[in-house]
């Protein structure tokens, strides 16, 4: 029941919208906002009718950590009040002139009372809902997160608390060489078809396009040039033997300074499925007989693929390619005549596995900081894959 001058008003329906949680500038507190939508009516005996009002108000409160005896920390909610400028009271239906005048009088009396009602009725509900939430939760909102790339910055999109589950979405900003944002990855989580996760205190979602952007930002490095005979003499010997099958003269040209150049042509394509992830790359491989040559003996276009493993190590979410396969090989150009590139399938896979794979995995190991694992005191976490995202949650006990 709500007061309206000397009469009473009956609430016919009320709902609390989805809670929104945002970090405050001090980095040690959160602001939680709860929208309240109410339909209330009051009888007007003189006109034998019920006047219905639509009331919209938003409560806001501060979340902080309170430490009790034995260093036990818990999350508490305080400074609860209505949001400035959020109060709206309107008529639900059109009324006659006399009824509208009466309704306007009721609204003028009701409006000053609503902030007190928020404090007395809505705030206790919010406080009760936060009683069991862990104090270290505020550490989840330290943004932005650093990444080992000047072209990509990561941010948490404003976290949402839904049915006592804190849902964080990892957003990203892509920059050009001039430091200007060229692309934003900040679509909200409700656009994703994610499974319902019960009895878990938090969920971190890394959307598919953000995973691709991270991989591309970490492993992109232009050409990778290797003096094959000096770094990998056994692979150089196998390459010479493979080319000898195609052209003995070309094989004889390979000297101690033979060079392999590898470059990625496109952004990796990511394929996610329930429990599995695979990345496809288009790679160009050039073979130079010596370091003095300006033209390669031949150039191959390789459609390569790798299975991806995700894991958390030392507070980092790390990506790793388990292997690399040369699924298709195309002859792009050749100074030793046309030949079937399939003849080089084994040695091509060997070169990619020996040179490109450790190079890419070394860069991917810089990972994504996920300090919430330590901050929330989790001993272990669970990683799951859907067709649209990588999802991080607390592991089942």
TrEMBL record:
Q: Which domain of life is it from?
A: Eukaryota
Q: Which residues form a coiled coil?
A: none
Report TM segments.
Answer: none
Give the Lipid-binding serum glycoprotein C-terminal domain ranges.
260-392
Task: Please report the stretch or stretches of sequence annotated as the Lipid-binding serum glycoprotein N-terminal domain.
Answer: 8-133
Q: Name one Pfam family in it.
A: LBP_BPI_CETP
InterPro entries xref list: Bactericidal_perm-incr_a/b_dom (IPR017943), Bpifb1 (IPR021193), Lipid-bd_serum_glycop_C (IPR001124), Lipid-bd_serum_glycop_N (IPR017942)
Q: Which PANTHER family match?
A: BPI FOLD-CONTAINING FAMILY B MEMBER 1
**How is this protein named in the record?**
BPI fold-containing family B member 1 isoform X2
Native source species: Bos indicus (Zebu)
């Amino acid at each position: 029941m709500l007061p309206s001058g000397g009469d009473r008003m009956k609430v016919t329906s009320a709902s609390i919208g989805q809670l929104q949680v945002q970090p405050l500038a001090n980095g040690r507190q959160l602001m939680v906002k709860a929208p309240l939508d109410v339909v209330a009516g009051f009888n007007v005996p003189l006109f034998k009718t019920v006047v219905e009002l639509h009331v919209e108000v938003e409560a806001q409160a501060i979340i902080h950590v309170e430490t009790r005896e034995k260093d036990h920390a818990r999350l508490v909610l305080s400074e609860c009040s209505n949001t400035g400028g959020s109060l709206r009271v309107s008529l639900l239906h059109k009324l006659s002139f006399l009824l509208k005048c009466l309704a306007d009088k009721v609204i003028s009396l009701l409006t000053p009372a609503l902030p007190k009602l928020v404090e007395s009725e809505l705030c206790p509900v919010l406080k009760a809902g936060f009683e069991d939430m862990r104090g270290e939760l505020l550490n989840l909102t330290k943004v932005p997160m650093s990444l080992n790339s000047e072209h990509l910055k990561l941010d948490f999109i404003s976290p949402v608390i839904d049915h006592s589950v804190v849902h964080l979405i990892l957003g990203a900003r892509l920059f050009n060489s001039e430091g200007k944002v060229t692309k934003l990855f900040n679509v909200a989580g409700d656009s994703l078809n994610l499974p319902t996760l019960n009895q878990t205190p938090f969920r971190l979602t890394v959307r598919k396009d953000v995973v691709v952007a991270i991989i591309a930002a970490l492993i992109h490095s232009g050409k990778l040039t290797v003096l094959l005979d000096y770094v990998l003499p056994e692979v150089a010997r196998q390459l010479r033997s493979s080319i000898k099958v195609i052209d003995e003269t070309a094989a004889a040209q390979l000297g101690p300074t033979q060079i392999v150049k590898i470059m990625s042509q496109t952004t990796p394509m990511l394929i996610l499925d329930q429990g599995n992830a695979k990345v496809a790359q288009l790679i160009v491989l050039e073979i130079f007989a010596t370091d003095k040559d300006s033209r390669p003996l031949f150039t191959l276009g390789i459609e390569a693929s790798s299975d991806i493993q995700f894991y958390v190590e030392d507070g980092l979410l790390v990506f790793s390619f388990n292997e690399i396969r040369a699924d298709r090989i195309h002859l792009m150009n050749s100074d030793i005549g046309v030949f079937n590139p399939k003849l080089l399938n084994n040695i091509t896979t060997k070169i990619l596995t020996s040179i490109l794979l450790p190079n890419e995995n070394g860069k991917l190991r810089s990972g994504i900081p996920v300090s919430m694992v330590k901050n929330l005191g989790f001993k272990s976490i669970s990683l799951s894959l859907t067709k649209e995202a990588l999802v991080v949650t607390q592991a089942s006990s």
